[in-house]
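To: structure subgroup
Subject: Chain for Friday's discussion

All,

I'm putting the inputs and outputs inline so they're searchable in the archive.
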Amino acid sequence: MMFKKIIKVISVALCSVMILLGVAIAICNITPIDIDKRIVELRSYCRTHGYNTNYGILVDYSKHSLKKRFFVVDLNNGDVVMKCLCGHGRGGESTILKGDFSNVAGSYCSSLGHYRIGRERKMYKLPAMAFELDGLDNTNSNARSRAILLHKSFGPMSLGCVTVPLSRYNKVAELLHSQSGGVILWAYE
């Protein structure tokens, strides 16, 4: 009789843990409330400046790095077609969860603003591919000279680059190669 009570208590406890874990996972997968507004703003920016109006990328650095904050968006219909985790620079007051931002060479911080995603190339000193990022705003105008790239993650923090998991990087690369014109990545907080 006591054995059955113990099993029941353990079962209830395990079920509770599974429910809480499911809620935590669901919370991490939530798309930001303002994403529709950001997509409209990105679409308008791309049209006004003559960039690709099919797809864009939003990076919401207001979220901590354990939440999905990298969003590939279809600018034609406003859908989020992919979302994933995203790393940030390790410089300044950055922590694993939250980045600090700078446009200064040697700061190892990520920068906020609009980027035109350039060509894919081999990374310096690493056997990996990456996309060049050209900063289009005062807050990220040194991106090219700082070698700020979009590349696969090598850990939770980078030298200022936008990083995503390898499996997602490959899908992003496939999409970017299928597009003509400059696709815009907008990093904001």
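Points worth raising on Friday:
The chain has two domains: 1-30, 35-188.
The longest strand covers residues 113-122.

D.
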